[in-house]
Design brief:
By secondary structure, the chain is an alpha/beta fold. Helix content is about 40%, strand content about 15%. It has a single domain, classed as Aldolase class I (TIM Barrel), CATH 3.20.20. Helix 2 crosses helix 3.
Amino acid sequence: MLTQSPYPARVEINEVAPRDGLQIESRFVPTEDKIRWIDALSSTGLSRIEATSFTSPRAIPNLADAADVVTGIQRREGVDITVLVPNLKGAERALACQVDELNLVMSASDSHGLANLRMTPAQSLERFREIVDVARERDVFINASLSTTFGCPFDGVVVRERVLMLIEQLVDMGIEGVTLCDTTGMANPMQVKTLCEAVITRWPSTAFTLHVHNTRGMGLSNALAAWQAGITRFDAALGGLGGCPFAPGATGNVCTEDLVHMFEAMGVDTGVDLDALLEVAATLPELVGHDVPGQVVKAGKWDRRYPMPAR
């Protein structure tokens, strides 16, 4: 007799390449191309797409067209459009574009917070309260991404008690979702599993997402460990694009098509049409002007078969 798996049977994939992927690219992707790309992604069954960031164009020139992108894309039922907002002004601009979700960002470590946002975690929390007060008046989901959850490239280890304290403050102010970010790929599967089990147990009503980078080749293994701990929401970037411009050594996110392929091969439902996703992934090198790290688009799915060699 087959026994029911203790692990989640379905997961949700949040595509972050249009924001996290493009922010570090050396050349500007034209607005029209971004819109076509996001429209293609939204037809593959992804749960949500982080379309852009409403940040200062001086800080991230590649995302200077945030409002034009969000208002230009096709909105599909069942696909939430989320955007990163660094401050109250960015949140107000995003809300004017009728986004579904605001993703606030802060660091768990002082040094990365000062390098990335020019704010300590305590200062970020104060700014969040302003944004939450404004967003409460609108039907919009509020998520907070906690960078360097699993380690800081400047400070090293970020103790778990500090991470839990910050999450508690986020939840107490009314934030509905928290993303645990491995900003520079410092995490290991045991560390990820332990922390994810702890937060799910302590805050069962909070929507937790895992955001990992593949800097040291452990992106998929860390995602697997989080899933085994009960996490059902995952950030990923098509082709493995991405990286934080304010974190030394940061490379691309865990690759969306590789992550979906892993889950689907295991019998876990992602809701994503993998063949359609691979078709979009195949267009990436032309879009960004260089090769990308994704593996499945090059090797094919696990069930790909080849003819026997001629004798």
